[in-house]
Input
Amino acid sequence: MNNIAFNIALPLLAAFLLPVIHNGSAKASRLVGPFVLLAMCWFAAAYFIFIEHPVALALGGFLPPLGISFHLDQLSLLMAVIIPLMLLLLWPYTNREGFREEALLLLLAGASSGMALSGDLFNIYVFYELLSVASFGLAASTHNGAAFAATFRYLVISGLGTVLALTGIGLIYTQTGTLNLAHIGQLAAQLDNNVGLAAFALIVLGIGVKAEIFPVNGWVPEVYATAKPRISALLAGLISKLAVLAIVRLLVVAYADTDALSLLLVLGILGIIWGELSAWRAKDLKRMFAFSSIGQLGMVLVAFSIPGEAGMFAGLAMMLHHLLVKPALFMLTENWSGSISSLTGAARQSPLGAALFILFALSLIGVPPFPGFWAKLIMVTGLVGADDSLYLLALGILLTATVIEANYLIRCAIQLYAPADENSSQSAKHGRLTLSISSALGVVLIISLFSITPLGNKLYQIAAEASNRSLYINTTLSNAQVPALRKIQ
Amino acid sequence: MSAMELHWLLYAAAFGLIVIGIIGVVTLSNIFRIVLALVIAEAGANLLLVIAGYRFDAIAPILSGSSVATGVMVDPVPQAMVLTSIVIGVGIQALALALVIKVYQHYKTLDLREIHQRLMNDIDQESGVRPLLSPHKPAGKRPLPEPQTVTGYHDIARGGNE
Output
């Protein structure tokens, strides 16, 4: 059972073979992507279900800290399952234009799986860059001037982030002489100084470009307003979470007891304030959701900055909730791209769409029976338990942000159900594919609503495992396994 | 030059390049120059990585056959990493230039501020939101013609008193 490497190799191989297959038979090339994604699901799910304790795989045959290792615990495997599922959901089934988008999506699948599983800082950086390239291509795939200009700005900000992250990685290497996350964790005492903290700050700002962290998220509204809703859903829902996860791994392993937590907290608070206020001012749905996702990711960051297991638990709950809700909301903007005032009476034309909008909006605000409420409750409990004035400030801002969120989302909902007037646009109807994607996510939301207790228990178990620093270090440095294929040689 | 001096010089060079690049990206308005500034910043980051593995007076870390290491060797890991990051950098830069060409084809300008303005207008137009600023030029002559009757500040002041 050492086939988790296929989760990276298979999609990358398929992405590069897709043009060749497409030349042979266009029909066959359309089947390749979904088939590969299903296989990825299968491999990752098999690991996720049967794994009992975290495993480190030394892929090249060299044991860590020398060789590059993959860290398989419940958290990374959960992400490895979610990635292909999300891509299957947002796959361009009706696309008949060619293979480009599909190849880029496969590239994205491979790179993001690598990012979730890797236990090596430089490896994470390489996968992050691969993921960036794929996301630039996807963001520009609308093929109009606005999309190209938005993607260019995205690329420049991202490129700057790359430089910062690389500088941070270089600084960590000068301090510890290693890039294996577990080994860095073992030598964490050498990073507890100004240079070490600067390295962490640089990596946060660098990788934070994808995670929509406060000062480096200028690209968000433009890209999400110009890209296809499917792509926005993917970038806001999935990719941002992977970037957050990479930062959190580094935080847990090497910076758990340092000022790095306050840095994340402050950046998160600024993100919440900026994102929610901008969303409140936004006049069209796409940009409203773009800004609201900045605010939500700020909340995720604040949650992860709570020390200990409570922080990991709250962060994961907020993160997975946003991962479920935001893609569905972005999908609903497909034919509601006009200004919010032109949506008067849209509920009559698309009743299911409007109902789904209400469902997801209520969960996003955190109205009691919905999962969003439980996520926010866990976070509030964690913030109160942290027992620090800065965390209490964050609590106040979180609650204020919730009020602002409620205000702008309910304003939209009222607009949708208002009687139609001369402002309302003619074609506010959703396509069948859009509706089925959103409904699928809605069904997942409702199922998780009814099984909130077992889900919470499982999530707490995952969080406890992921926030256990000595377990991470021991798994990689003392018990790393060499894949069977390599042993035979 | 002693080992210490050389080390500081190299670090200063690396951070200098990064700072120059970042200042360039933030302040320049020509998008081609922005790409070049990004290249400079990336060179700085790569230099920093190489220095991380540098040892003064050390030899290249190459072992052939049964030879054993004699003396100090430089750390080969950062060199391997730099190779990777240079290749990635070139890929990103090529993509950036491709986008520069595409942007130029659509907007016929390389000025980032103008491109950004038009991008915002395009987004506003598509979403049916009225932009904050009118896209049209103001009517009439610019700069405004000089007012004719005014002869000077003191005249007005005196006129007002009378």
Remarks:
- Chain B has a mean pLDDT of 81.
- Residues 109 and 115 of chain B are 7 Å apart (CA to CA).
